[in-house]
Amino acid sequence: MPMNQIAYFHRLGKERDPAEFNRRYWEYGKGQPLDESAAKMIYAPIIEKVGSIFPDKDALIGEIGCGTGDILVCLRNMGYTNLIGLEKEEMPLRIARERGLDVHQMGHYDVRIAASAIKGNFSGLIANRVFETPVMNRDYAETMAKTAIKSLVPGGFAIIGSTEKGRMHLYGFMKNGGVKLHSEADFPSEPYVRSLVVYERYKL
Questions:
Q1: Considering the domain boundaries, does residue 96 fall inside one?
Q2: Three-state DSSP class for residue 109
Q3: Alpha carbon 130 to chain centroid, angstroms
Q4: Residue 183 covered by a domain
Q5: What's the number of domains the chain is made of?
Q6: Is residue 29 in some structural domain?
Q7: Contact in structure between 182 and 159 (CB atoms under 8 Å)
Q8: What is the DSSP string of 32-88?
Q9: Does residue 185 lie within any of the structural domains?
Q10: Tens digit of each residue's pLDDT (9 = 90 or more) over 1-54
Q11: Could you report the per-residue pLDDT of 111-130, keeping only the tens digit for each?
């Protein structure tokens, strides 16, 4: 399914079927990056949230599970200069690097292992469809939430997206402490980012 058709399908409104959208999106997207126009529509809630929270384009922003780097490319083209991708799988890592992105391999659901060689802790972390079932179980979610919190600077933000709020492992962040709820929003008309929860790490 060509990307202009996916973009059209994304804009069909109430008549579209989210399950069908996801099926077609992943069918097309296996191993292939999205073009920017489609990525900006599909990930609009996340991209807009980053833009509102981080007016400083030099802020160090990481993405957990960055895949082929679609969100990071959009942010780079918005002028953000300090972007880091964290990804577990080899193929999307290779593609993201081919797109000129600074990406690091992470394993064992530990953000800090990947971040240890980076120039400091993150001002912001993005994770879309990572902290949710069935992608990640409760134990892994709590482990990664803990390391994600520790990899944020005091006053830093974690922006967590999901297809459904009920699928999020939100308790992982609250259980591990160190953060407070900054904002949450639902986007029922969006097929891909339907819920967005933002946490802020406590300032020292």
A1: yes
A2: coil
A3: 8
A4: yes
A5: 1
A6: no
A7: no
A8: -PPPHHHHHHHTHHHHHHHHHH---TT--EEEET-TT-HHHHHHHHTT---EEEEES
A9: yes
A10: 555 555 555 555 545 566 666 666 665 555 678 788 888 888 999 999 999 999
A11: 765 555 566 689 999 999 88
79 Ramachandran zone, left/alpha/beta (phi>0; psi -120 to 50):
left
Q: Residue 171 above 60 pLDDT?
A: yes
List CB contacts of 125: < 8 A, sequence separation 6 or more. Answer: 61, 62, 63, 64, 111, 148, 151, 152, 156, 157, 158, 159
**What is the pLDDT, as a whole number, of residue 139?**
83
- The pTM score is 0.85
Element (H, E) at 180: strand 179-186
Mean pLDDT of the chain: 83
CATH number, domain with residue 100 = 3.40.50.150
Q: What is the spatial distance between Cα 17 and Cα 45, in angstroms, rounded to a whole number?
A: 19
Residues spanned by the domain of 187: 42-201
Listed residue (134, 144, 196) closest to 175, CA to CA: 144
* Residue 86 phi, psi dihedral angles, 5° rounding: -125, 125
Q: What is the pLDDT of residues 139-165, one digit of tens each?
A: 888 888 888 898 899 999 999 999 888
Interatomic CA distance for residues 201 and 154, integer angstroms: 5
Tokens of 127: 């994770």
